[in-house]
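tool_call predict_complex ligand=dinuclear copper ion
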Amino acid sequence: MDLKSTRPRPSRALDPLLACTRWLALVSGVPVLAGCSGIQSALDPAGNDAYEIYLLTIVMTVGGTLIFVGVTALLLYAIFSRPEQRAWLGTRRTIVYGGLAFPIVTLTFLLPYGLTVMRDTDVPTADALQIEVIGEQFWWRVRYPAEQGQPEVTTANEVALPIGRRVTVTVTAADVIHSFWIPNLAGKIDMIPGRVNRFSFTVERPGVYRGVCAEFCGDQHALMAFDVLAMEDAEFSAWRAAQAAPAREPVTPFLERGRELFRSGGCGNCHAIRGTEANGQFGPDLTHVGSRRTIGAGQFPNNIGTLGGWIANTQHLKPGVRMPSYGMLTGEDLRAIAGYLESLK
Ligand code: CUA
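tool_result ok
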């Protein structure tokens, strides 16, 4: 049993320590930190690993601010007070206590504290859920290897997680260096071509979070995000089973036409839709693209309108992505393809 999972969950409103540190951050002159809650914020931790990193950040920020203010006050005092008033600043006692003892004691406490945070976060466990993520220009290839009788799942730009269970994310990159970061849940990890990096964390609070690429990787680095869905165990199993299933068959002539256009347009050379002959591996797997919250790697809400707009205007909406714009399609055809993709729940 992982000891850390027995600790109380950090909850946004109720945890007095969290509220207290926010308040301290506010009064110590960093109001920016105090207001940063939300789905993409390291200052709104939703798991124990993120919580420990958060506390470390607050201790360092508040402590550093207080020391800076104190030293600045002493400096001003030394400059503007009368010579006989400031004489004590130059005594051996002041130098030994303030200049030697204080920094030594402070750093001596901070080092083991920092090392403890390192020891307690990013701890892999044998029963951790395994997820593989590959950074691409400019999206995320996500794979859940088969485990305990559950089949493998491939998706893109969306990471589902069960709460309370350790998760180990194994990352690499296909082209250039990216960095995988879910600010609410854990620290960052570099995705390096030809190298496999691994890190572990636990999410405790269900909800939707936003992950981002944290390493400049090209034109569209800033538009490389993904959705993180943290859910109860049973819900996660259902999600996994649904994602593992082959794609839905079109149920209306309109959707049938969309699938036919998808096929004849050659979309299947780059995209896979399991259950059809589309088996391209170049772009995101679209088997259940309709079930995702967003498209374009976290850029637009997922609906028939944005899907159609995306297909026709990829190079306008996100210049530099590998997918060309299919602006030659008629409105009717676009609607049919988008409708078909939207139906792939
Ligand atoms: Cu991928 Cu920045």
